[in-house]
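Session log. Operator J.P. requested a structure for one protein chain; no other inputs attached. Running the standard single-chain path with token output.
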Amino acid sequence: MKSLTSQLSNRMTLTVTSILILVFVAIDISIDNWIDSEFDSGLMTKSNYLKTLVKETPNGIEFDFAGEFMPEFSLPTQGNISNYGKLKRCLNDLSP
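Structure written below.
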């Protein structure tokens, strides 16, 4: 038969552990939601900026884009390879 002290100690440990796990899960979920909303907001801002650069002319559609303002959307130049270019080079090196 277990003593009253050991039973109380086990129950308190289990209760505190359960509360901590629930708090950490709640914090994790709220941080994930906040990060998702910040990412979506930033992406929406950049897409709205890119929409302002599109002009429809009688000859077709023009896209007045300057890569120095948004380098992540520009084409890589000699000596300046974007992250996409680095990833593509790594994947090409790995493929047989």
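Operator note: The two ends are 66 Å apart (CA to CA).
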